[in-house]
Amino acid sequence: MDCYENCSDVLEKLSGVQVSVTQIYRLTDLYGKQIEDTVNAERPLTPLKAEEVLYVQADGSMILTREESWKEVKVGRFFKSSDCIHAGAKQGWISNSQYVAHLGSSRDFSKMMDNLIESYGRLDKRLLFISDGASWIKNWIEDAFPGAVSILDYYHACEHLHEFSKTFFKDKQLEQRWTDQQKELLLKSGVPEVIKNLKAIA
Q1: What is the pLDDT along the chain (202 residues), one digit of tens a residue?
Q2: DSSP H helical segments within the chain, as ranges?
Q3: Contacts for 85 with CB less than 8 Å, ≥ 6 apart
Q4: What is the number of alpha carbons within 13 Å of residue 16 lying toward its C-beta?
Q5: In Å, what is the CA distance from 81 to each residue of 68, 142, 152, 171?
Q6: Boundaries of every domain in the chain
Q7: CA-CA-CA-CA dihedral for 128, 130, 131, 137, to nearest 10
Q8: Nearest to 119 by CA among 42, 13, 196
Q9: How far, in Å, are 164, 177, 181, 194 from residue 170 at the CA level?
Q10: Between β-strands 127-131 and 149-152, what pairing exists: parallel, antiparallel or unpaired?
Q11: CA-CA distance, 138 to 77, in Å (whole number)?
């Protein structure tokens, strides 16, 4: 069902047993802590074939903890090009992937990620990172995997476009029209054209 919020309802429908959300949280927290090291260290994905690409996503998000107030949890995701399923004009989906999560320093997180990535052997351009362009992610990729391809994800590219256009355009309609044109170019792999358009008015 993919939704943690609905787990209590799903369990009741499937088993006929009522389990409180609090109890589910206690159990997932208990067993999650016990298997964390094993899950983060093992690679369940099969080896890459000669023509396959390994995609790696990384991101961080702030969460409020009881012990240390706000702290960043870092999450990584791995999947292979053969795991990307496209059915006609419909949106694609990823059939199989592995996640790594760490509540703590980017150094510890990147070590876990490095071990998994390196277990695939030398990939160079067949290693493709997708991220929000955060400094710690950018620096980690450049230092550890200089031959890899690094992509700023579409959502964050659009966010940066909007930040720029708000500061440049005084006319809101003109701003919206220009930004929509750039977003359309991004969807059609027109990154060089978007950069040229930015430089032309910056």
Answers
A1: 556 678 888 888 889 999 888 888 888 888 888 877 676 666 677 888 888 999 999 999 898 888 888 988 999 999 999 988 887 777 788 888 888 889 888 999 999 999 999 999 899 999 999 999 899 999 999 999 999 999 988 999 999 899 999 999 999 999 999 999 999 999 998 999 999 999 998 7
A2: 7-15, 21-41, 106-118, 135-144, 154-168, 172-187, 191-201
A3: 92, 93, 94, 95
A4: 0
A5: 39, 22, 18, 43
A6: 1-41, 45-152, 155-201
A7: -10
A8: 42
A9: 12, 13, 17, 20
A10: parallel
A11: 16
Task: Measure the CA–CA gap between 35 and 31, rounded to whole angstroms.
Answer: 6
- Cα 144 from Cα 111, distance rounded (Å): 10
In whole angstroms, what is the distance from residue 148 CA to residue 128 CA?
6
Encoded tokens for 11: 């369990």
